[in-house]
Every structure is written in structure tokens, then in C-alpha cells.
Write a structure and sequence with these properties.
Number of helices: 13
Helix content: 40-55%
Strand content: 15-25%
CATH class of the domain at 4-118: Alpha Beta
Distance between the termini: 43 Å
CATH superfamily of the domain at 4-118: Response regulator
Shape: elongated
Length: 284
Amino acid sequence: MPRQSIVLACADSVFLSEMRSAIEKNFEAEIIELIDNKNRLWDCLKEMRPSVLCISTDLLDSIGQVAQIRKLAKRSKLIIWGEDNTTLAVDAMYLGADYYTLNGENISFFLEKLQMITGLRRKSHSVWASKLDGFLRDQFTNPSLKLSTLCDHFGISSSYATRLFREHIGMSFHKYLSFYRVEEAKRHLADTKDRVYEIADKCGFTNSNHLIRVFFKFTNMSPDQYRKSLEKTDWLAYNLSDHSMKLNSSQHLMRPNSLQKRIFRYDNSSVTGFAAKDVFKCAK
């Protein structure tokens, strides 16, 4: 089923904003317009053909306007929401509404009804995990980045975000953040002559000591040792905690999911099928 397009119309702009956030957070849907003005409502009906049209009675001069809306939005699923009034509900349905529901004072109740009426698909956990991964990949060089930053950005709880990282990405938020920063530090060590404190600043570490401490935890060597090792060897084995791994193309690698694929680069070859969670389960 393709993503459904939704237009929400209500005189309460605050409620509209909250509703938009809740729908985009929970469902595979696109809110293409928020309308809190009567004139804009009629312009929108002439311009747009949304999959779902949700209109509050506070934007209608009378319930009789439902018939006009039905003519303009022939292919849209029309939902009218208003007060608990049996007469209004019957009239709205008679005039062409697909459904009449109570005022959305309780957003959870309204979302439940919306899903039942339209068949909206709920977002899967993997979709959210992909969103968190993409945001972290774009923002990891920010030294003040925290789990709360992601939660505030996407409007999800810290407990849910924590579960997404552990179950779908394979490690905690802090370990995954460090992973990105260490990988970027390795790139700078290999490709530039930047000093350690300069690399720390570019990769999101608070200072050079922070970089050295985290870098050693993941590679079992200091940044300087890592840089020197690149000059002396044809390839670099990854050392995590007390576990040393030496990979070659003939070894069997576990098939990872899309979020766990990571490329481990060597001077003469690359290994592209190693699951990140299997690397980091070795790290303390």
C-alpha cells in the first residue's frame, strides 16, 4: 500500500500541529496540508486531491457544506469530526461523509479511529531505527550530541530510542556514536597529517584525551600507533578488548541486516559483510 496523503482542517492550530506530529510519528502517511482557515479550506479542496480529508465542524458554517465538500473531493476518504451529536453525525453521513467521529480532544482516540477508517499502516520499528541511524550519521561530529537530542528531534521517548538501538542496530546509543567517531578518526589518521587534537575536534570528541581513550577502547591502540601501523603493514586487523580478529576474503561472514553492514577497509582488500553487532559484542 502506498503512503497515504492527508489534509487536516481544524480551527485549533495547536491541535493541528500535535495531530500532524502524532500521525507522522506513528503511521506511513504524509500530511500535505494543515488548514485552520475557512477560506483556505475551500481553496485547498479545489487544488488538492488527498487520500484522506479530515475536517472539523468548527470550520464549517453548517453541516450542509459536507455535500459541497463531497463534490469537490470525490475520490478522498472524507472524515468529519465534531461534537457528540447524533443528529450532526447522521446528517454528515447522509450528505457524503465516510465517517463521523468525536472531536479529537484525545489524540490517541482519534488516531485509533483514523487507522480503523483508512487502514493506515503503522511505522515499523525498523523504520524508526533507520531514521535514528541516518540522523546520527549526519550529526555525530557534534560534540554535544546526546540521546535526548534524537528523542526531541523525532518526538519519541528515551526508553523507546534505547530499545531501538539495542534491538535493531545492535548496540547502545553511546557505543554507536563512538563507533562513528572512531571510524571518522581513522579516516583522518589515514588520509591526512592532522594532529590528534585537530582530529578530535573534527570528529566530535571533546578533546584529544577523550579521542585517545575511546580510540583505544575500540582498536586496542592509540591514534599514533594506528597511524604508524598503516605505514608498516599491508592491512590492519581490528582489535576489540582482548579479542583480535584477522579477516580475509575466504572466511565465511554472517549475513547482516541493512543497518548492521559496515565496511572494514584494509590497504589491499575490503570486507563488506561483517555485522556491526558481532564486532561490538566483543567490546566491553
